[in-house]
Design a protein that fits this description.
elongated; single chain; two-stranded antiparallel ribbon; binds arginine; Ribonucleotide Reductase Protein R1, domain 1; 3 domains; mainly alpha; about 450 residues; Fumarase C, Chain A, domain 2; 6 strands
């Protein structure tokens, strides 16, 4: 078969090299955006008088036909990539006039255009999926404003908190991820089309018109940059890595909380798996998989950064390596967000176990220190006194709430009966009323702010 670029060649391509160089195996994902790009390019060529009316009409009709029959296309390795495969199919459809479509265009600006268009569609879908997850977080939070659980630092019991507060922490991480994606879109919605191979074109094209037809917001001002820029992809891969990192942290907690040792959460059967050998097992596989897939998403970021680091201007074939990583990341992140949403929505938090945990620890020690401060004791001294009281309890095998008043008064004479109420986890949570704190009312305020974010 002769190549579209075969004019200056006399020998046949090596079959192995052809296989090695072809991208059709993966870039066929770009078929529908490639056709959109071609439709806009053809119309612009006609409007600028570069294509005759009948030529444009035939090309447009052929491209529309290919769009309708997308699922039935047969692509070949010999046609190397999606661009040349579609050109061949268009030629089969409308004859030699198809050859006029590539006027004032190169595969270099074509593939860049495709990637911009594809990324825009994907990022919009991802933002929507993230909002779905955020919505589930607010629903779970709403149910659990008054559910008390241990709050941790260093994975050691620290202070009791509202479960809603814990859940909403992840809401805000995702909110920042969404902001980053929206910002990324500013660089994604820029048109490289019309940059040609690298230097622009001698034809009187209108790049702003084709950009407008494709819904881009701007046009690259430099043709070399237009065809060789993959910053917008790298940026996306970094954002995707951050999203996975956030999900992975939450997965780690879910895996831990689902253990018999913690028993804070029960995952639904729909989002758990069994063991082929041990009949009693109920494993949090999907949380583990999301945590595990974070690695490949980080890998794709490193991969593209490394591919790009030594490239001279402008297009280099190395850049064909951008696609598999970004497609893989896009599938992985989107599915991870969706699976996580179902897993969280159907999970049951074991409220009794969570609350019981907060009555069997020293996470109310700060309460006692703060109380002494209200009696005029400097915080440093109060800290020391409470430390001694905790040590005493450890020796006695009891908790702070169990100490008799006389013992308290031996630590400090101003301690009265009122201390016992302050030491309850409910009070410890309720009294943290500072903005952004875990106090029940502060959490209610936070929850309404969260809901307002996703209502827009
Ligand atoms: N398949 C190529 C890629 O993905 C398209 C651009 C090819 N351009 C070229 N001059 N060989 O990057």
């Amino acid at each position: 078969m002769t190549k579209l670029w075969g004019g200056r060649f006399t020998e046949q391509a090596s079959a192995q090299a052809e296989q090695f160089g072809a991208s059709i195996g993966f870039d066929q994902k770009l078929a529908s955006v490639d056709l959109r790009g071609s439709l806009a390019h053809a119309r612009m060529l006609y409007e600028q008088g570069i294509l005759a009316k009948e030529e444009w009409e035939q090309i447009e009709q052929g491209l529309n036909k290919l769009t309708e029959t997308l699922d039935t296309h047969v692509y070949t390795i010999q046609d190397e990539d999606i661009h040349m495969n579609l050109e061949r199919l268009l030629t089969e459809e409308i004859g030699p006039v198809a050859g006029k479509l590539h006027t004032a265009r190169s595969r270099n600006d074509q593939v860049a255009t495709d990637l911009h268009l594809w990324m825009e569609e994907h990022i919009n879908a991802l933002i929507e999926a993230i909002e779905g997850l955020q919505s589930v977080m607010t629903v779970q939070a709403e149910t659990h404003v008054e559910t008390i659980m241990p709050g941790y630092t260093h994975l050691q019991r620290a202070q009791p908190i509202s479960l809603a507060h814990h859940l909403l922490a992840y809401f805000w991480m995702l909110e920042r991820d969404k902001e980053r994606l929206k910002d990324n879109l500013k660089r994604v919605r820029v048109s490289p089309l019309g940059a040609g191979a690298l230097a622009g074109t001698t034809f009187p094209i209108d790049r702003f018109r084709s950009a407008e037809l494709l819904g881009f917001e701007a046009v690259y001002p430099n043709s070399l940059d237009a065809v060789s820029d993959r910053d917008f992809v790298i940026e996306y891969l970094a954002i995707a890595s951050t999203i996975m990192m956030h999900l992975s942290r939450f997965c780690e907690e879910i895996i831990l909380y689902a253990t018999q040792e913690f028993s804070f959460i029960e995952l639904s059967d729909a989002f758990s798996t069994g063991s082929s050998m041990m009949p009693q097992k109920k494993n949090p596989d999907f949380a583990e998989l999301i945590r595990g897939k974070t690695g490949r998403v980080y890998g794709n970021l490193m991969g593209l950064l490394t591919t790009m680091k030594g490239l001279p201007l402008a297009y280099n074939k190395d850049m064909q390596e951008d696609k598999e990583g970004v497609f893989d990341t896009a599938d992985t992140v989107l599915q991870s967000v969706q699976i996580f949403t179902g897993m969280l929505e159907s999970a049951r938090f074991k409220t009794e176990a969570l609350e019981k945990a907060t009555t069997q620890d020293f996470s109310n020690a700060t309460e006692l220190a703060d109380y002494l401060v209200t009696k005029g004791v400097p915080f440093r001294n109060a800290h020391e006194i409470v430390g001694k009281a905790v040590l005493h309890c450890v020796g006695q095998g009891c908790y702070l709430k169990d100490l008799p008043l006389s013992t308290y008064q031996s630590f400090h004479p101003d301690i009265t009966e009122e201390v016992y109420d302050l030491l309850t986890p409910e009070q410890a949570v309720a009294r943290r009323a500072s903005y952004g704190g875990t106090g029940f009312d502060a959490v209610r305020t936070q929850l309404s702010e969260a809901k307002a974010k996703i209502a827009n």
